[in-house]
Amino acid sequence: MTQVDELLTFLGEAVTPFHAVAAMSRRLTSAGFEAVTAFDPDTMAPGKGYFMTRQGSSLIALRAGQGEPNEGLRLVGAHTDSPNLSVKPNPVVGRGGCVQLSVDVYGGALLNPWFDRDLALAGRVTLLNKAGQLESVLFDSVAAVAVVPSLAIHLDREANKQRSINPQKDVLPLVMLGEADTFDLKAWLAERLAGENSDYHGMRVMDYELSLYDTQRPGRVGIDQSFIASARLDNLLSCYAGLSAMIDATDAEWSMLVATDHEEVGSASTVGAQGPMLMDALTALMPAPQRNQTLRHASWMLSVDNAHAVHPNYMDKHDDQHSPRLGGGPVIKINRNQRYATDSEGAARLRLLAERAEVDVQAFVMRADLACGSTIGPITATETGIPTTDLGVPTLAMHSIRELACVEDIPQLTALLQAFYRRLA
Ligand SMILES: [Zn+2]
Asked: I want to staple 340 with a disulfide (CB 3.0 to 4.6 A). Which of 164, 192, 200, 390 is the partner?
């Protein structure tokens, strides 16, 4: 399987942050990484990999180097979450002869593309087992179980000019015919889970975090198949590139992959980039405060998150001199107002790394008259003091239900991250 096919397979498996962490854990385990509850340098062997997960939706993987990490760590950071429609706790609504689920919008979703898609339901379900203990399991309906039909143009003649979307009212998916009392989501989940695994038989669903996703598989598009189209390219593409670089760079010195949840809602959570997860891991590695500080200052992090490629239909949305193209290679993201963490020394070092890895890089700066988005880069740099550089592959349709990137950029990013772990610069 090519690297791109492997990425498409991963994207198809990683339908929620919980599934993303499970899919990453499986790959790390089969590459010989050991699952641990916390890092313990006293039990680590040089060259061996370890990983830990937190609350099922964030993960840190580590490859131990020779001796102590006096030269600092090399860290790749990315996020596991993507904007979506998330099912509310008491969701069932009956209207117009149909059963619907009420939903919340998670993150800055582009809502238009959610209409008329065959949607599945997935996430984490917490069960009460027969011993009276709570147990969380993954759930994925796999099959399309929901749809948000558009309002026909005949009932809204201005639809192409000025239709706006009310997230409370307009995006409730239909799940079946009937009245509100026809359907009990928790009972349905319990039945489905018991059908998949007899161990879950008779267990009660206490709560869940479920979201909808598009059942259309990730795939290649274009006359010469040069594009890849998928949900969640932002930012599972970066998670996957970081993961495969870490697995392949077997000779790398102390290196880390940090994949955190909740970036799309600001990263302030137990398992988000603003939470204590990374600092806890660094403290475990180097408990003495002064030496820990020295370790952090000697380290370098790449915050890898997708960059806005220039859109051929909207060329004026980019600064002419900073218009990354699909297929042009990874993009260094710069914002002097610190929406990205990149500084000139980090960018210079990254350019040198790219030269040595024979990877082309581009630069992105937001138009001065448009507000710039942000990443985990400035947050992680603020929390840890680790010098951080932001980059990512050029992407179109960011935060749509189906985003677009370019086949050629995938091996470029992976090669760059491998060179980073191998300290080519
Ligand atoms: Zn992102």
From this structure: 390
